[in-house]
Amino acid sequence: MTIRLLPSEVASQIAAGEVVERPASVIKELLENALDARASSVMVSVHDAGRSLIEVADDGQGIPAGELSLAVSRHATSKLQSSDDLFRISTLGFRGEALASIGSVSRMSVTSRTAGENTGARIRVEGGLEGKPEAVGTPQGTVVRVEDLFYNVPARLKFLKQDTTERRAMDGLLSRYALAYPQVRFKFSNDDSIVLQTAGDGDRRAILAALYGVEVAKQMLEVLAEDEGLRLTGFTSPASLTRSNRKEITFFVNGRWVQDAALSTALLQAYHTLLMVGRFPLSVLFLEIDPEEVDVNVHPAKAEVRFRSSDRVFSFVQRSVRRALLAYSPVQHVLPQSLWGGASGNSLAGLPGSSSGGLDWQMAAGLGESPAVQAASATAEPRQDSLGRVPLLRLVGQIGAAYLVAEGPDGLYLIDQHAAHERVLFEKLLAQHGRKNIPSQALLTPATVQLPPAQAALLENQLCVLQQFGFDVESFGPGAFQVRAMPSLFSGADPAAALRALVEDFEEDETPLQTELESKIAGRVCKRLAVKAGQPLSVEEQRALLTNLEACDSPRTCPHGRPTMIHLSVDMLERQFGRKGAR
To answer: Which of 40, 97, 504, 537 measures 20 to 30 Å from 525, CA to CA?
Structure first.
């Protein structure tokens, strides 16, 4: 095969693929340029999830008219002068590829004016072909307008994800930079609807409240630590406030948003023994380090970094976060002393929290029997185990505030109360949904839930689906929703937790709720609203849980496949105690 040089426009499009992956990539590059220009206000507008229009306007230093053509050329930058500068980078941008890459795959215009000029200038770039600069009247700063992204690269356009997913990526990006630069006013509009707006007054906790709600912002723990050239600031959640994935873990290094596995691991190590398996903190942390100690020239997207002393950075982050957790949230014993007093024998009545708060068990379990009937059913003749069902069980008690101990005709049963209750709620909710008859209970006082822009945009398109499951939710301002009613099955549960259960578990490529199976949606809600490990239950609640678990079609596993119980047969117990010879 003959070797030939690629045409310049083809080479530009190939290079652009490393920098411009999606609309959020365009916003990131333009946003970082605005921040490098010391802008105090940044306005971002998009239409059609960024496909038809992305506009970023700032009031920064601007670009001189005589340098506008150079600014849209490849490898042209004001931030580096020699190769030595690569090892002490203090700006967000430095490669000189952003504007050229964006212009090669779109119809782009750049309008700018500096403080010392009377008029500004505008240049247009279409598919990598530059026009001539023209004089225009414009305020100080820069406006970059990107239209018809990937119009000349149909393959790249075809691989963009659904609008909801692309909007979520942009929402998450703007939210993170708003937290990182609280002194800058941000305004983000999506299809002429304001998604995010900050005051630029430097109050980072106020931005947390706007993104996650006042209650979450109040709970966030402040992190502030310094150690020989390292400084860590920001916020992290207490062990009681978690998410089901790592998407709310955010790290900035010298003002640059990075996705570094080592930093995330250090954070999670700080929570060691404090979090349940599969739960992750909500954290926004900012690491400041000598620029010579970190290499940001790892990938064209500048999202990865390498530390010269990675072990030292890892240890510093882990110790700093752990210190904040212990200072604000002293570690509690799983079984406080109060659990062991006030009760005699196997009775758990009167234990703290055994009957207060949580779900309404009479409603959730659908019990209509009197205590005498419940006691009779618990001591009735056992039925045979068939088709995965369990025999009638006699309650013994609760251990570890997490497991029920019961006796069956064939041995001992240890039941995970969370998994068991999850199975009970799941089958009841699906049965009601199948009959198109999910009883809904209006809340005496509607609950207002504040969600981050990414989750709010996702939920906005799914409100009709929630109605099918007994929820009455309506939009209540930017990022806010009001829960007016919820399924009677979950009476007494936290409406905010019920709503977040449907949106926080989504992954980047996950399909909308409308296309999910009813069982998957029901499983999400029930997992969040089932009783948790560590919650003491009264004797009546324990018996109600056993009775309803026995009636389930698939009582031995939770809806996600985790076992609800462990069976220790009489034969196995006899062998363990040496009553049937050596093991």
So the answer is: 537
What is the token pair recorded at 439? 């009883």
Cβ proximity of 334 and 534 under 8 Å: yes
Predicted confidence at residue 459, as pLDDT, reads: 79
Query: Identity (one letter) of the amino acid at 43?
Result: M
Q: How far apart are CA 322 and CA 426, in angstroms?
A: 37
Question: Which of 3.40.50.720, 2.70.50.60, 3.10.290.10, 3.30.1540.20 is the CATH number of 335-583?
Answer: 3.30.1540.20
Match 């598919």 to its residue by tokens. 127
**In CATH, what number does 8-201 get?**
3.30.565.10
User: Can 207-328 and 335-583 be said to share one CATH topology?
Assistant: no
Please give the pLDDT value at position 358: 40
> Where is pLDDT greater, at 249 or 97?
249
Q: Confirm whether pTM is higher than 0.85.
A: no
**How many C-beta atoms lie closer than 10 Å to residue 346's C-beta?**
11
Which residues have CB under 8 Å from 154's CB, separation 6+? Answer: none
For the chain, the structural domain boundaries read 8-201, 207-328, 335-583
497-546 confidence digits (pLDDT tens): 777 766 765 443 344 554 455 666 677 778 777 888 888 889 998 999 99
Q: In the structure encoding, which two tokens stand for residue 113, read together?
A: 């004016």
Residue 319: exposure state from Cβ atoms within 10 A (0-12, 13-18, ≥19): middle
**What is the torsional sign of CA 29, 31, 35, 38?**
positive
Q: How far is the C-alpha of 439 from the C-alpha of 5, rounded, in Å?
A: 69
Of residues 536, 442, 543, 446, the one with CA closest to residue 496: 446
CA distance 455 to 574: 54
pLDDT of res. 354: 37
Separation CA 208–CA 313 (nearest Å): 26
Q: Which of 65, 97, 66 is nearest to 80 (CA)?
A: 97
545-569 CB burial, b ≥16 within 10 A, e <16: bbbbbbebeebbbbbeeeebbeeee
What are 50's strand-pairing partners? none
Q: Does domain 207-328 have CATH number 3.30.230.10?
A: yes
Is the pLDDT score of 345 beyond 50? no
Q: Kindly report each contact of residues 87-92 with a partner whose C-beta sits within 8 Å and lies 24 or more positions away, as own/partner.
A: 87/291, 87/292, 87/295, 88/291, 88/292, 89/291, 89/296, 89/297, 90/254, 90/291, 91/36, 92/32, 92/33, 92/35, 92/36, 92/255, 92/256, 92/302
What span, in angstroms and rounded, lies between the C-alpha atoms of 258 and 256? 6
Residue 349 in tokens: 């009545």
